[in-house]
Amino acid sequence: MTDFLDRCRALTGANHVLTAADDMAPYLTDWRGRTTGNALAVIRPADANEVAAIVKLCADARVPVVPQGGNTGLVAGSVPDRSGTAVVLSLKRLNRIRAIDPLNNTITVDAGCILEEVQNAATAAGRLFPLSLAAEGSCTIGGNLATNAGGTAVLRYGNMRELCLGLEVVTPQGEKWDGLRGLRKDNTGYDLRDLYIGAEGTLGIITGAVLKLFPQPKACLTALAALRTQDDAVALLASAQALCGAALTGFELMSQFSLALVTKHFPDMRLPFTEEHPQYALLEISDSESEEHATATLEALMSEAMERDLVTDAVVASSIAQSRALWNLREHITLAQAAEGKHIKHDVSIPISDIGRFIGETDNLLAQRFPGCRMLVFGHLGDGNLHYNVSAPEGMNDAQFIEQQEAVNRVVHDSVHRFAGSISAEHGLGELKRDEIRRYKSDTELRLMGVIKQALDPLGLMNPGKVL
Ligand code: FAD
Ligand code: 2HG
Ligand code: ZN
């Protein structure tokens, strides 16, 4: 292996082949601090050609490759196993915005670009890149593509798959495929782009992408509604869609418990209500007319919902700062729950019409099996995507509760299955849900996935142990 590492050093420079334990440590543990692996080395190539050359060396030496972007993934997909035989391939040095074409409404970027930097580049060109999620300051476009990330604007703009027009990919054999096409229409055979998106690095390494841009809305306005039940939130969503149409760009659900944790762990943050309410909905409108029009629309929506007794209290932000403060509450839930302690995450999707029933039934089943366990439910209600997270009962040691993860998963995922939902709506499978998915996908679907993996990566070197 010394020979292999020397060849890697000759390609990237010795500084970019890390082998010391301290240097590698940040790349070996996942964001949640739940999974730590070992690696032969962490390699940091500078561009797509270096990625291709390194992957070719790995294929020749039969060294497994774990691609990594911002390492913010929540399913332990971006870290190696404990064997110490793989290299972590960090894409973060591939950070160039390659081109912006405002007439074609596209931006071409390296895979290691940070999401927020891509949003900012689009804004500077008078356009919008709409993917938005709480980790946007550190996750990368490559990771967003590899996980087909969702976030808070899917309702209007779609997930990462829908935002991508073209890809550049390094195959497991170290060949570079240039599919960087900025076309809205291209029916020339199998869609390789869609195959790599959502593959979590198991089929190849994404090195560049052409992404869609959109016109900037004239005004973005946020409202926070207090509600009694999740069913009322679903009814409010329907009213908002009827009144606002495509202008409704976000609709997030947050339970009282999720926001109580935010205000507990981030005491500077406050809810704009004097009383507590069981549920909250955060709505965003992106208006193509004016701020006045957006305010009038949201105010009309809220007063109609209050007249129907759907909403018990509401605030419409009157400034960008107020909008930001409301979104901050939402975006700090994951951090607050992490600060509270270890918990069991579920990232599920359910037909929107069944959300209330799903939560009610699942809450009851869990309460019977694990008395006192605390359900923290929030998420992208407009997409039918709930983060149904479960914390230990008050006073119980977190580690002791986590030991029951499999039994808790069984209750939640079986319930998801009964409602014809998905056990991973936006985070992917990684290692965490690799075995779990085998219970819920048909043999045919699993076999076809295996056939694709075998055809593209016959040596099984791309992110082994993840997804399949
Ligand atoms: P990593 O974590 O580095 O990698 C994720 C997966 O992609 C791994 O399997 C890795 O091997 C693979 N990969 C990375 N780069 C490449 C590449 N160039 N080529 C091939 N494979 C690659 N996700 C959502 O969908 N919606 C949310 O709202 C959301 N909110 C979050 C909030 C917080 C606070 C945190 C910590 C995470 C959140 N996530 C969310 C999860 C995470 O941010 C996303 O999955 C993100 O897309 C991962 O990007 P990354 O660059 O960090 O990827
Ligand atoms: C979000 O929507 C993320 O904020 C994280 O997908 C979800 O912390 C979670 O479970
Ligand atoms: Zn989410």
**Compute the gyration radius: what is it?**
23 Å
Shape: globular
Separation, N- and C-terminal Cα atoms: 27 Å
Helix content: 25-40%
- Low-confidence segments, given as residue ranges, are none
- Provide the residue-averaged pLDDT: 97
CATH class type of the largest domain: Alpha Beta
Please tally the helical runs, counting DSSP H or I stretches of 4 or more residues: 17
Structural domain tally: 4
Overview in brief:
By secondary structure, the protein is α+β, with helices and mostly antiparallel strands.
Describe the protein's architecture and organization.
- InterPro entries: FAD-bd_oxidored_4_C (IPR004113), FAD-bd_PCMH (IPR016166), FAD-bd_PCMH-like_sf (IPR036318), FAD-bd_PCMH_sub1 (IPR016167), FAD-bd_PCMH_sub2 (IPR016169), FAD-linked_Oxase-like_C (IPR016164), FAD-oxidored/transferase_4 (IPR051264), Oxid_FAD_bind_N (IPR006094).
- It comes from Noviherbaspirillum denitrificans.
- This is Hydroxyacid dehydrogenase.
- GO terms for molecular function: catalytic activity; FAD binding.
- With 468 residues, this protein is of the alpha+beta class.
- The chain contains 17 helices and 19 strands.
- The protein has four domains: 89 residues, 2-Layer Sandwich (Uridine Diphospho-n-acetylenolpyruvylglucosamine Reductase, domain 2); 119 residues, Uridine Diphospho-n-acetylenolpyruvylglucosamine Reductase, domain 3, CATH 3.30.465.10; 116 residues, 2-Layer Sandwich (Alpha-Beta Plaits); 103 residues, 2-Layer Sandwich (Alpha-Beta Plaits), CATH 3.30.70.
- A hairpin with a 5-residue loop joins strand 8 and strand 9.
- The longest helix is centred in the middle third of the chain and has 17 residues.
- The two termini are 27 Å apart.
- Bound molecules: flavin-adenine dinucleotide, (2R)-2-hydroxypentanedioic acid (2HG) and zinc ion.
